[in-house]
Amino acid sequence: MAVSSLRLKRAAGQVATIAITLFGLLLLTFVIGRMMPADPVRAIIGEDASQETYQMVFRQLGLDRPVWEQFLRYLGDVLTGNFGTSIRTGQPVINDILHVMPATIELATFAILIGAGLGIPMGVTAAVNKDRWPDHLVRVFSLFGHSMPIFWTGMIALLVFYAKLGWVGGSGRMEQFYIGLVDERTGFLLLDSAMAGEWDVFWSAVNHLILPASLLGYSSSAYITRMTRSFMLDQLGQEYMVTARVKGLSRGQTIWRHAFGNIRVQLVTIIALAYGGLLEGAVLIETVFAWPGFGQYLTNNLITGDMNAVMTCVLIVGVIFIALNLLSDILYRLFDPRTK
What we know:
This protein is mostly helical. Helix content is 76%, strand content 0%. The chain is globular and about 85 Å long.
């Protein structure tokens, strides 16, 4: 009974924390929207409109009301799912985001698979060979991935691998010839083209996905490698590692079963944060590759001063990180029974 009561209190505390965080995020988003130098009225009516038209739209948007009342109105709209209409597209902002988000999720998912697939084994290898040549090689490789500007590597990669060698596709999600051949059922081009049996479109999409996903994956692998190496070094210095070897376990068993097994929970958080960073931080790579995703949508609306779209994008980024932290907590409990 006491255990059930404790779990109930913990769950209630978690719900309260999420609610407070979301409220703070909404307040922060509203403040950012009001601090931006863009004039939402001018963005709607243009620079040549009369002062009478300006005042009429100013009142229609509720900007003549007290700030606290504007916030309550904004809060009420968000809670009812009303995020406003995009000035740039003329469509509800949430519809625009639902349209572009699958492209970014597709890109970020493949990137994190590459990043984790590279970063984890490299981090383990570096830790096991501390201060020897494999460790130095991995650290230099990670340093380049962490320090090189991704827009620069994107342009160089396009020039070399697409324009010069022709190994991969160029900008966009597929060749221009295939645009419109596949109905958008889910928005995920690989899935939609496979479901429709349009394999030419599928392989064109894969060809265009390889380069931007690899660059993002390489960038995220630098962070994952560094953290994996740090976690593994801490575990390899523990006394239980010596005990495991004395008991006759092989070097591979002690490294992967014991040391790596004990850092899985920590890696869950690292990978989740890296994935969240890819979802909201793919702005530059989407711009370089003309990738019609969330990052490019946010960039275009920042340029045009479309504050409804910008505020909603900022809010969604915050919700993504909250959701990933919640998912990390759930996975913690699955991987480590001591946290239950």
